[in-house]
Design a protein that fits this description.
By secondary structure, this protein is mainly α. It is about 85% helix and about 0% strand.
Length: about 375
Amino acid sequence: MWPLYAAGFTTAFGAHGIAANLGGHSADAVTSLLVLGGLLALYDGAEVVLKPVFGTLADRIGARPVLIGGLVAFALASGLYAVADSPGRLWAARLGQGVAASAFSPAASALVARLNPAARHGRAFGSYGFCKSVGYTFGPLLGGVLVWAGGLRLLFTVLAVLGAAVAVWAALAVPAVPPLPKARQTLLDLARRLTDRGFLAPTAALAAATAALSVGVGFLPVSGRVAGLGTVATGAAVSLLAATAALVQPRAGHARDAGRLTTRAGLTAGLLLTAAGLACAMLPGLAGILTAAVLTGAGTGLITPLGFAALAAGTPAERLGQTMGAAELGRELGDAGGPLLVAAVASGTTLTHGYGALAVLIALAAAAVAAVSV
């Protein structure tokens, strides 16, 4: 399992480590805010388009080769900019990283489900989510240290080595999991499965959690700056959010496996905590920001392992890759949609109203999840 957890860390560290350091340390390649926005969107855009494709491929040829191939491709894409810095290579490397992550991320999720019995899915996905949260937490910090020490090329070099090392580790330690025989599936069958409430409710909860997490990471520093707080305080608040999510996930998964927490109750509670966190972000000062970070982190930490465990439990084993790819697509849409919603509302009113709008939507999602059986 540990190479799979390392793959989760790699995609999170690669995404946030580079994104947090592109604008401040790449004057040669990032010449405007428009270029910066394009580079940031390139990674996520590739994931939105390709994750369902690679998830389906994992079902067809097996998740292990897709996992290893994606990690190797991630190492090669990172090495592309590490060997020579130029704007064109930076664009190509970032696109390549996004394509590679689109392959090994859903493959890793599918393998987490395949290599564990249903009774341990909560714990397994909790550990997987913990390692991803560690990547999200320390990616900007470690990435900043690497860029300070040797420039952006050093960060890409470390990512190349990391991707290659995890690929070798996975090749040596992850057992072969052959694809399972499956009945013919029409587009109508796929549409029915992806519109079933057993898929929609966990995926909507995961998308809401990702939207709140993205908003917290992106906008809590803005609230801190408005309140007169320094970068250390606002950075600590963002780290507190991610660290809380990392600590809660394994415990939530263990409680689910032990029968102390049902999926519906956990998802509902997680969504309500997340909505409360965003509501606290509307309060002025450091207390509001820290409370928002803790509650949002706890809510997303509850949702993530329970959502993925519910998807694994409700999916035929031979379709796990496809389901995980589609669910990851939902998360990516939440990752992009949450900040866009808050920014759109804030541009016409204030950031406080933006937080409130997303909090209301997530509270409505909690009511919807509570009304259905998951």
